[in-house]
Amino acid sequence: MSRFDIVSPEGLRVDGRRPPELRRLSCRTGVFAQADGSAYIEQGNTKCLVAVYGPREPSKRLLTEKGPTINVEYNVASFSSGERKTKMRKDRRLMEIASVIKQTFEPIICYGQNVASRSEIDVNIQILQLDGGALHAAINATTLAMIDAGVPMRDFVCACSAGWYKDTALLDLNHLEESADVPTLTVGLLPKSGKVTLLSLESRLHLDKFQSVLELASQGCERMRDELDSTIRKATQELAKTAL
Amino acid sequence: MDIDTAADATTNGASHFTLDADTFRKIHPAEYNRRFISQGVRADGRPLQRFRKANVNVGSITTANGSSMVRLGNTTVICGIKAEVTEPTPEAPRAGFLVPNLDLPALCSPQFRPGPPGELAQTISEYINQICTSTNLLNLDDLCIASGQAVWVLHADILCLNYEGNALDAALAALIAALWNVRLPKSTYDELEGTVRAAATNTIPLVLNRLPLAATFGVFDAQHLIADPTDQEEPLLSSQLAIVVDQEDNLCGILKEGSAMDRERMVECIGLARNRAQALRRLIDEALAKADAS
């Protein structure tokens, strides 16, 4: 095990949080004028920016008729983490995350009246600073940016991660915890129906613990929903004020 | 039907075919801008030779050795500098490296596509690189840890978050502000093990010899000189002129593209560029002072 305790004897984590506590969260929508919709999320030290372009005319002929095509471009700034990473042209890890996000959003976009089924939506995600939980920050920010762009969706997609250490479930892991031996489960939830759209686990977690980790992560998603909802409401009120 | 006359017709209500201002701008951008500029004002409300409002912020990326964010109007760029240890070349055993790179991702504007860096991003990166070498921006020997063994390489990654024209001015200002904000850790070279040991805290600032800053101008319709063109205006300009001036009013670079331009006009631009560079430098100073205080 590492030099430090993931959870101290007093029940505190490395950054001073209690196990079921989220990091400080701040979100904004409509950050940039160029994009049709944009959002910025800061969760602890993880900073994520999303710009949505569209729905617009597809750049090439698309074969699908089952709803709009979503293109996700996921980028991590080279100065975002401790070690500098040079970006490869085809970084598999980045492509995998992009595809996860694409598949999470594709089924929940309503199409028909407002969004033509053959249209195209480009989602550009830029991680500016990385301190764990990049995937769930990216998903939450994408939800906000989609709403800001006026893309009709069945529900919010709220994501949160949770892990297990010794005998406690930890919510919203930071980089230190992720890179130590803590198994990380990222959950994407549709809060209205309570259904899970995304579940991602890449390390060993005992079956008996799974239920409680999932439970905690879902609670995190619920809280995330409240935050996203109030952000959207605030932004809409601002918009209404300027319109009057 | 001619579109210009259609737009005129809206004013006297003689036609059923009406165009609102936004549609007119999209289908006939040159004429739309011409009507503004011929009246001595730009489509965004600025006088012809006024630069957009600038805003500088440093040290917001805590994972980088130095960072800055610069806004010119809505053009937003962020620059993060990461220091790494590398081997020097045999020709210059004490010289470190500064590697600036500008990225214009698909995120920042609908005009850019995902994929390898485009022509604009590469041209500007190269121009900034040339300015860094030719102005002797840093004493590269300051980046030496052990002669012939280990030096610092500074990767300056400049990322555009929102592109509303004139990336060069913003990128160069962001680079200078971020370099000024860089703190390197104290480091020693271990001869026996052949490794570098760096202190945990970043404490040593860089010494910048010059503070070159750019100001870009464009010529519209071969007669109107406009400063700090936006992305709407850029494709309509017949020529562009970028002037780089340092803190002692030395010219550090001029880049003139497009069709021919009067000499008097160029002199006029140089005067304006000097004021703009001074104003930007003041903003960078203020941002750095603010970051030091907090």
From TrEMBL, chain A:
GO terms for MF: RNA binding
Main location: cytoplasm
Subcellular location, record wording: Cytoplasm; Nucleus, Nucleolus
Gene Ontology BP terms: nuclear mRNA surveillance; poly(A)-dependent snoRNA 3'-end processing; rRNA catabolic process; U4 snRNA 3'-end processing
Listed InterPro entries: ExoRNase_PH_dom1 (IPR001247), ExoRNase_PH_dom2 (IPR015847), ExoRNase_PH_dom2_sf (IPR036345), PNPase/RNase_PH_dom_sf (IPR027408), Ribosomal_Su5_D2-typ_SF (IPR020568), RNase_PH (IPR050080)
Location of the Exoribonuclease phosphorolytic domain: 21-152, 155-219
Example of a GO cellular component annotation carried by this entry: nuclear exosome (RNase complex)
Alphabetical keyword list: Cytoplasm, Exosome
Family named by the database record: Belongs to the RNase PH family.
PANTHER family according to UniProt: EXOSOME COMPLEX COMPONENT, EXOSOME COMPLEX COMPONENT RRP41
Subunit structure: Component of the RNA exosome complex. Specifically part of the catalytically inactive RNA exosome core complex (Exo-9) which may associate with the catalytic subunits RRP6 and DIS3 in cytoplasmic- and nuclear-specific RNA exosome complex forms. Exo-9 is formed by a hexameric base ring of RNase PH domain-containing subunits and a cap ring consisting of CSL4, RRP4 and RRP40.
Designated name of the protein: Ribosomal RNA-processing protein 41
Organism: Rhizophlyctis rosea
TrEMBL record, chain B:
Chief site of localization: cytoplasm
Biological process, per Gene Ontology: exonucleolytic trimming to generate mature 3'-end of 5.8S rRNA from tricistronic rRNA transcript (SSU-rRNA, 5.8S rRNA, LSU-rRNA); nuclear mRNA surveillance; nuclear polyadenylation-dependent rRNA catabolic process; rRNA catabolic process; TRAMP-dependent tRNA surveillance pathway; U1 snRNA 3'-end processing; U4 snRNA 3'-end processing; U5 snRNA 3'-end processing
Matches recorded under CDD domains: RNase_PH_RRP43
Entry keywords, A to Z: Cytoplasm, Exosome, Nucleus, RNA-binding, rRNA processing
Any matching Pfam family: RNase_PH
Cell compartment(s), UniProt: Cytoplasm; Nucleus, Nucleolus
One cellular component term from this protein's GO annotations in UniProt: cytoplasmic exosome (RNase complex)
Gene3D superfamilies: GHMP Kinase, N-terminal domain (3.30.230.70)
Keyword Signal among UniProt keywords: no
Exoribonuclease phosphorolytic domain span: 51-185, 211-275
Molecular-function GO terms, alphabetical: mRNA 3'-UTR AU-rich region binding
Sequence similarity: Belongs to the RNase PH family.
Protein name, as recorded: Ribosomal RNA-processing protein 43
Organism annotation: Rhizophlyctis rosea
